[in-house]
Amino acid sequence: MSVQKSYTDRSSDRTLANPTDQSLQQLHELLRQTQDINGVAVETVKSIQKRIQATLPLVDTDRVLPHKKTPSGRTKVLHMNYTQGQTETAYETELEHLHFLARTVKELGIRLEILTDADCRDTIAQELAKDDYSALDYTLTESQHPVSKWAEDSVEYLENGQVAVLNQFDDELLQWAMTAGRRHRWQGKITPEHLEEALRDDHLWILLGTRVNALRMGLERERTAQAKGCHVGHIRAYIEGGNMITGEDATGNPVILIGKDAIAATAQMYQLTDDDVRKLICEDFGLDHIEQVISVEQPGQFHLDMGLLFIGQGVVIVNDSHQARNDAIEMATIVPCLTTKQMAAKLQLQCSLEEDAVKDLEAAGLEVRRENLESDVLCNFFNGEFVEGNDGAQYYLTNGGPPDQEERFKSLMVDQWQVVKEVFFSPRDAAQKSLQEQGGVGCRVKGARI
Questions:
Q1: Is 421 inside a domain boundary?
Q2: Residues 204-214, buried b or exposed e (16+ Cβ, 10 A)?
């Protein structure tokens, strides 16, 4: 979504509520107004910042690690959300993904958990009653409200079987905080004019990862879990699921990769340092050392899982878009116009962010391998899910793409890296339509062990 005005600009459009109100939004407005006063005492500003910090909730996750997304997580359950599209094309895309996941889950002998609303329940029941799915192990849960198709982002399934969801933040505050972090980190990567354009029109450059908050899916997941009698914890940092990847280093110790958008936004909203945010994450998920929370620049994508793949044992595959960037620069030189120059700038930014991601990962002691495994809406093999079949072998589910690219990726995963026994690709047309909506198979499902 596009951020048309800064948070501070927007806040001036509203009347400031009682300054003693401890809501995060109200306190940020008070902080801004105080900072705008010439000669205001530093102690006054610090006192408001402390009041903001005091709004941070207490830990309620039982300090349990999230389910690992690497093969060592041994995923046996896939959670998905089903929603009917508003158009015939969207309806068909959702149905094709339901069929793909149902077929694959049945073949591998694992379980499918589906969350949907009353309007879609009969459709799913009718589809899965067909002979093709007679042996499918699945559960259908009805939500009180329509759900987002992106099951990955709004919830974390913890190793003890409990769940943790995102807290709800003021939309404008969250967008302002995340944009401020990008402005700080992206300075100098592209021209000032292009930077302002990228921050203003994020939906045309790199989308802000705020849609869980905007769609209120954390609240819906919490209601659904509570209705089942489950304990629900809350992730205190704003980390959408695709921007947090739990795995392990080369020695087997647990680590969590966190996208820098999440770190920066949380730091801005609670007036903390980046390391303070990493400590919060350690507390929420029971990690012993801050080094186990690895802050990683998103590699030219709004979430980590769209541009890198953590294959386990300390090895991460990061996208390499150098050739695409070079081609775009050459095209902008041969045919100079607004469109070609903008494309070159976009790929320059993406390349630079990929390099930053590599540096962050290597600085944390992880092994990085570079491969070009995504091409906008044409294909994205980073976005997927590792699962363990009933034969004990590992498999990978991802988005379909051009046949030659599928074969190349399968060869890497099965033969060269020897990570999985087989790769399952979603239908190509449905995959491209899904990627046009800024999400793929890995965004549509969320893995769990139990």
A1: yes
A2: ebbbbbbbbbe
In a domain, 22, yes or no: yes
Name the 3-class secondary structure at 314: coil
For the record, the structure tokens of 210 come out as 């705020």
Q: Residue 416, Cβ neighbours under 10 Å: how many? A: 9
Cβ atoms < 10 Å from Cβ of 355: 18
Structural domain count of the chain:
2
Q: Look at residues 97, 148, 149, 140 and name the one whose alpha carbon lies nearest to residue 122.
A: 140
The residues with which 116 forms a beta bridge, in sequence order, are: 142
Specify if 58 maps to a domain: no
> Residue 67, SS3?
coil
* DSSP sequence for 354-390: HHHHHHHHHHTT-EEEEE--B-TTS-BSSSEEEEE-T
Tell me the average confidence (pLDDT) per consecutive run of 10 residues in the chain, 450 residues long. Answer: 33 33 84 89 94 96 97 98 86 96 98 95 94 94 92 95 94 97 97 97 95 90 90 96 98 99 98 98 98 98 98 98 95 93 96 98 99 96 99 99 98 98 98 96 96
Collapsing DSSP to helix, strand or coil, 256 comes out as: strand
Shared domain for 264 and 148, answered yes or no, is yes
Helix or strand (DSSP H, E) at 156:
strand 155-157
Do 96 and 17 belong together in one domain? Answer: no
Same domain, 362 and 431: yes
Phi-psi region of 346 (alpha: psi -120 to 50; beta: other; left: phi over 0): alpha
Pair 75, 49 in one domain: no
2 lies in some domain? no
Does residue 430 sit in the same domain as residue 295?
A: yes
Q: Give the total residue count for the chain.
A: 450
Strand order in the sheet with 367-371: 308-312, 315-319, 367-371
Of 46, 32, 72, give the one whose Cα is nearest residue 253: 72
Residue 414: which domain range?
71-448
Model pTM? 0.92
Residues 386 and 310 placed together within one structural domain of the fold: yes
